[in-house]
Amino acid sequence: xxxxxxxxxxxxxxxxxxxxxxxxxxxxxxxxxxxxxxxxxxxxxxxxxxxxxxxxxxxxxxxxxxxxxxxxxxxxxxxxxxxxxxxxxxxxxxxxxxxxxxxxxxxxxxxxxxxxxxxxxxxxxxxxxxxxxxxxxxxxxxxxxxxxxxxxxxxxxxxxxxxxxxxxxxxxxxxxxxxxxxxxxxxxxxxxxxxxxxxxxxxxxxxxxxxxxxxxxxxxxxxxxxxxxxxxxxxxxxxxxxxxxxxxxxxxxxxxxxxxxxxxxxxxxxxxxxxxxxxxxxxxxxxxxxxxxxxxxxxxxxxxxxxxxxxxxxxxxxxxxxxxxxxxxxxxxxxxxxxxxxxxxxxxxxxxxxxxxxxxxxxxxxxxxxxxxxxxxxxxxxxxxxxxxxxxxxxxxxxxxxxxxxxxxxxxxxxxxxxxxxxxxxxxxxxxxxxxxxxxxxxxxxxxxxxxxxxxxxxxxxxxxxxxxxxxxxxxxxxxxxxxxxxxxxxxxxxxxxxxxxxxxxxxxxxxxxxxxxxxxxxxxxxxxxxxxxxxxxxxxxxxxxxxxxxxxxxxxxxxxxxxxxxxxxxxxxxxxxxxxxxxxxxxxxxxxxx
Amino acid sequence: xxxxxxxxxxxxxxxxxxxxxxxxxxxxxxxxxxxxxxxxxxxxxxxxxxxxxxxxxxxxxxxxxxxxxxxxxxxxxxxxxxxxxxxxxxxxxxxxxxxxxxxxxxxxxxxxxxxxxxxxxxxxxxxxxxxxxxxxxxxxxxxxxxxxxxxxxxxxxxxxxxxxxxxxxxxxxxxxxxxxxxxxxxxxxxxxxxxxxxxxxxxxxxxxxxxxxxxxxxxxxxxxxxxxxxxxxxxxxxxxxxxxxxxxxxxxxxxxxxxxxxxxxxxxxxxxxxxxxxxxxxxxxxxxxxxxxxxxxxxxxxxxxxxxxxxxxxxxxxxxxxxxxxxxxxxxxxxxxxxxxxxxxxxxxxxxxxxxxxxxxxxxxxxxxxxxxxxxxxxxxxxxxxxxxxxxxxxxxxxxxxxxxxxxxxxxxxxxxxxxxxxxxxxxxxxxxxxxxxxxxxxxxxxxxxxxxxxxxxxxxxxxxxxxxxxxxxxxxxxxxxxxxxxxxxxxxxxxxxxxxxxxxxxxxxxxxxxxxxxxxxxxxxxxxxxxxxxxxxxxxxxxxxxxxxxxxx
Lengths: 595, 554
Ligand code: SRM
Ligand SMILES: Cc1cc2nc3c(=O)[nH]c(=O)nc-3n(C[C@H](O)[C@H](O)[C@H](O)COP(=O)(O)OP(=O)(O)OC[C@H]3O[C@@H](n4cnc5c(N)ncnc54)[C@H](O)[C@@H]3O)c2cc1C
Ligand SMILES: Cc1cc2nc3c(=O)[nH]c(=O)nc-3n(C[C@H](O)[C@H](O)[C@H](O)COP(=O)(O)O)c2cc1C
Ligand code: SF4
Prior knowledge:
The complex is a heterodimer of chains A (595) and B (554). Chain A has 23 helices and 21 strands. With 595 residues, chain A is of the alpha/beta class. In chain A, strand 3 (113-119), helix 5 (131-138) and strand 4 form a beta-alpha-beta unit. In chain A, helix 11 (328-335) runs antiparallel to helix 12, helix 20 runs parallel beside helix 22 and helix 21 crosses helix 22 (551-570). The longest helix of chain A is centred in the C-terminal third of the chain and has 20 residues, at 551-570. Chain A is globular. Chain B has helices at residues 8-15, 23-28, 37-46, 57-62, 84-96, 117-129, 154-171, 177-182, 272-286, 297-304, 306-317, 365-375, 398-407, 418-422, 443-456, 516-533, 540-548; strands spanning 48-52, 69-75, 81-82, 102-104, 110-115, 146-147, 208-211, 225-232, 235-243, 262-268, 337-340, 346-350, 356-357, 359-360, 363-364, 379-382, 388-393, 424-425, 466-469, 483-489, 492-497, 508-514. A five-stranded antiparallel beta sheet of chain B has the order 1-2-5-4-13. A five-stranded antiparallel beta sheet of chain B has the order 3-16-17-12-11. In chain B, helix 7 (154-171) packs parallel to helix 9, helix 9 crosses helix 11 (306-317) and helix 15 (443-456) packs parallel to helix 16. The longest helix of chain B has 18 residues, at 154-171. Chain B is globular and about 70 Å long. The mean pLDDT of chain B is 95. The A-B interface holds A 247-252, 260, 488-490, 492-499, 502, 510-512, 517 and B 30-33, 56, 59-66, 68, 116, 118. Residues 49, 51, 72, 74, 105-107, 109, 111, 143-144, 204-205, 207, 222, 246-248, 296, 355, 386, 426-427, 431-434, 473-477 of chain B line the site of siroheme.
């Protein structure tokens, strides 16, 4: 019989709760008890003890399973979903986590309790892989969903005009289809961690309360044991990687400065696969911080507090705050003093344009106001990591990861501009990194399967990893790269390597489109159209089709080209072609990594 | 000879199907600015050389980019005479598809530099549209046929020029490959053929020139085959025939050497074409096809003897050449400024530094000549000294021409010591793949410094010939100069002294692998001694030969 907490201590639990807790731990062995105490303590530290404790009575319950649906491109939604599941399991609920990319849309009709974590990508689009789900449920033919009780958490980036629209649309749609909202939707910006944690607590609490009691002993320890813990570096605890190579790879006279960066990951515990990205936790360029302070006429030495800790304003701006990309809250804050900005906020087009072409310094300089130090840091969003596709094969480069970084540095409106992460990467001797796995962008497991890779600019990065990986492992599948950039003479990224791989027979075929060399502009999609017969043949041979690079234009144009090629060469109707391509996606043979 | 295996290039020529090779596939490859290595060699026959900007080669490799491949395109233009219309075409191509300069060569041809692969076809096409060509401007064939650009006797020049063009046309390759590849000509059915060359062409480049005394501006003794015009009562009577000249050599290979051609007799105007054809024939059949460094006519003649050569030639001609007629050369450089020929027309010879027609600061030569070409009624003539003659200007136009050139700062270029105005420099860095040292880019600095020395010794107006080559191949014909620098390594040259003023006699190596300081020191001393101790009327070349090498001028 295991020890029972001393009765003299007033337990902060309702009796039922204490009772339930006793029951749960009843037949725990010593180790399990120790582990459980530590785990609960951990939950407490994580500020969610309330969540875990309150629903304790329901621990015995957890009748019907809860499904936590997520869709993701860069992993945030998965993190939130898993975090939610952990808490729910801790609360004794039966939960399963489901990626919408591998989910048969109709199946939702059979689900009673669902939580959705939905990011918005592209320009107000669903994350790659989850289109089918959204097309179906947002579409005309979607059936009623009376049986469904749901909650939606929207992820987004308020520096996009269509902030969190996918989450919003899904929420409204489900409601319209007769489903019952449980916890009200929240729209999270890129610094989503805190609000998301709060919201998931709320969801778990509701779920627990509404669940009817039913205990399945065998399940209990299993649930507790089911909590996964990973050692690898994370966003919060990144690994400090030394920058061993920082080599410009655009030629003299290029309009761009693209760098080949090599990072030393020795002993980082990071094990990546081609297709993954690295997250970089940046610091802002010193000169930018200075310029910004000058613009708002504040002294960098002034003390301010950033989530609890006081520090000099300059430090806050350099290390904790986003001072390049404009966010909606910031814009709204400044708009209070500027009529014109209110108009911008009102018009989607203008807003998109504003975010794409104005940095914080432009906002501050062109729309001046009296700033207080604390007001400033509060108005600014948290500095968020940036992702970079890994451009190397782990097996060909022991303990290294290579990146292909286009440096954001330009003059505009008579001002110097810097990009936070890209400049940090080329200045800092070492940078904090973490792995961002991407299972929706993977080489075929079968090395004999042909692949078609379409990439523009730095979008070619993961394909360098792909080809190097296949060469390293002697995979015999055909590799076809369609690459585009500005000028042949200066912007042909990794030209010597492609030529070598072609000579060695690894690169079966390569087509290039340089937009600024000829009279008329040619892009990758034009090459795909020129090669339509060949492309269709490859697809019919089971080729996987990959697209990486610019999300705004390239991805869409390539998608259209693919549809046209299929329609033309397959002699299909518009609809048939749509299905063909949808099928490619379903089979994970059409994968994209666009940004 | 036949014992040794044929050189790889011979095999390539044979399998190339009359110079087609895989040039079209090479042009179509979008991943590289270069051609397949076989096509690089075959390309020469079509008139271009693959090069790369050597200034940025290393840096580009570091950036994972291939070398900055580009092409030098050479225009075949017999006697170096172009119409204003043709000039405008070439000017446009240089500006739109080249590096913004036109290069006048030591063989009276035009060169473009910096032509990208994707522009090769448009460029070659436009050149042909302008009734010029690039075929056989390079390669193992008869190169651009030179002809002294101007003579007091314009009738003689007239006739000589006519023969130059006739030879050029007659000895041009006849393969249809050129039209198929560059001019979208019909692909021919069955075997192509080459009446004169056969399918392996010449063992090596073959060069022909025509000199018109009293000027030896073409350096008639430096070519495989030279003709010295002989006039009788103001008309062209025929030519003395010169064979076996050549400049090219390789550092540290005594088996390679420059050679002065031999005068072997006289032929009438009517016999000239036959002589050209059969001299080419002898070299085609007996030239060394196993060792490309030993494949010029000069070596064939030295190997087998001049008498053997004459017999072989006479046998093929079916008649012996008449004995050589007397002739005399009194000059070799260009005569700058205005001259009038008996027909009353005016000719303006312009100094073009190292033959590079370009806009630099206040000297807007490219633009100036473009403007001139728009109004010019006569023609343009390239001199063998990399300069330019604006020829056949009617009296009334003189002033206008003067003004135009003045407005573009071309006139201001014309002043300088004879040494500077007569100096030659080959192209060398950054485009020439064989360059070991700077030449064209270095010449201005060098001539300024030498002018200062001459000034000091009161020799500023002494016509001393100076020639600089970036390597021992001798594209500026350095071995026939009174002072020559031949590149050994960046910043280092072999210094040659003692050639004669008229191009009869070669100079000799005076200092090996020396830098500028040493070169200037040596010349400073020699100039001083020359100023003090020259014999009456003695040229600097003869003086150097006498005092440095202790040989009496022949
Ligand atoms: C442009 C020019 C020099 C100039 O500044 O004007 C020139 C430039 C080159 N010559 Fe030359 N040669 C030029 C007149 C000469 C002359 C002078 C002459 O012919 O009167 C000679 C010495 C005479 C002779 O042939 O012996 C000459 C002897 C060579 C040689 C050595 C040939 C030999 O048999 O020894 C080479 C190297 C080779 O052929 O292997 C060469 C090769 C070259 C190349 C094509 C380098 C190459 O093979 O890759 C040079 C291109 C440089 C560039 O970037 O433009 N060039 N070359 C002249 C073009 C003439 C033309 O319009 O066709
Ligand atoms: C999955 C993924 C993979 C990625 N892979 C790569 C990769 O392999 N290589 C790579 O280089 N990037 C990659 N990116 C993009 C990268 O994450 C960063 O967004 C990019 O490097 C810019 O970040 P930054 O901090 O340097 O600039 P920021 O500080 O984010 O500044 C960017 C802002 O500057 C402004 N701006 C930028 N350029 C201009 C301009 N020309 N005119 C006007 N305004 C401008 C815009 O407002 C823009 O929002 C990837 C992104 C994702 C999501
Ligand atoms: C290429 C790209 C496009 C994006 N477009 C939008 C958008 O239109 N609207 C928005 O609110 N957020 C947008 N975002 C921000 C993401 O929704 C946000 O980063 C979210 O946390 C990503 O979730 P995930 O990591 O699960 O994919 C975009 C992000 C990327 C990388
Ligand atoms: S002499 Fe040598 S360096 Fe000069 S152009 Fe000829 S080959 Fe090139």
